[in-house]
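Um, can you check?
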Amino acid sequence: MKKTLNINDERHVRALSGDLDRNLKMIEQVTGVKVGIRGEKVFFEGPGEKVNEVLRLVTDIVGNIQRGAVVSSEEMENLFRQSANGSRIDYTELASG
């Protein structure tokens, strides 16, 4: 399955991807979903359920970034690892926890 997320601000794309695309590489490694960025679009490819879950989490993270939150690479990794282990957690739970 392939899906695309449009992010309307290049700064938010950079915050999501991390230095040298560190966060994108981590998402791929932890979830098995390929993630790519071109301009302000984020592309996801992989098994349907996994793509949907990664898209949901990335959407949550981007929403928080758009509201001014600083999301660390460690927070993102924790979120995706918990998701890969079957936990259904959202960013607000992670950020407050």
